[in-house]
# Entry
Amino acid sequence: MKRDLVSIKDLTSKEIDEIFNLAVKVKANKAKFSKALAGKTLALIFQKPSNRTRVSFEVGMYQLGGNSVYLSPNEINLGVRETVEDVAKTISRYVDGIVLRTFEHKNCLDMAQAATVPVINGLSDFSHPCQALADLFTIGEKFSRFNPASRKLGFRLKGLTLAYVGDGNNVCNSLLFAAARTGMNIAVATPAGYAPDEKVVKEAKEAAKETGSQIKITEDPLSAVNGANVVYTDVWASMGQEEEIEKRKIIFKYFQINARLLTNAAAGVLVMHCLPAHRGEEITGEVMDSKNSIVFDQAENRMHVQKAILIKLLG
# Structure
């Protein structure tokens, strides 16, 4: 039976652990997995431009011995030239998996339902699962402990606190689900009116009951960052919200990740950003280039984690 990755909320804690453990092996030994997906082809259907998502999936698929086909917005014109369902049914006849980067999350749901091959959400307005999985994998790496008995790298996420400061967007939603599934604490600080979806928070808190994750939603960035091990931010206006940029610059003024805000965090706090970054807005260049920043580590890990996902779903 085929599996899709549309949202992290659809993954169990065990499945996330399996992805992380496989990503450790894939990252450590590229040659060992060089034929893992030999003869397989991945379609990349993108309605939105991309840097990290496209390159990491294309290179990752190549390193696994497979091929990828990129379909730009003008080539497909999803939902206009053809329905999502017709595209899914057609492309499924040619390829072994589909990555969809789209505006509306409904497109991911419709694509997954109609396709006969695995569908991976490369970003939607609701969810960015591959990003959040790579983020938590990166945090796990930084706080991991090697177990000599099992000779395995034990990812430490439980007991750590991630503070997300900024817009309650798709990345924030996915981080909430991921933290809840792994037992990591998360504090989200957004301006009034920009909090994550109430349904997302409710579902995350339900999942957190099983793992012990503590979830906090606030409008005070100082409170969210207090004692945090990791501080995370994203752009204040996502693609499709360009007309709101100037308005949001005023509203989000006090939600910038800067050296002063980080003094409230735990000693040795790590700083993350899913990129692209608008330096001087949601994060200062000083912080992004500091020794505390693991921004480019998390960008690299997109490829390793996605390779693990591809092996799980297409292998």
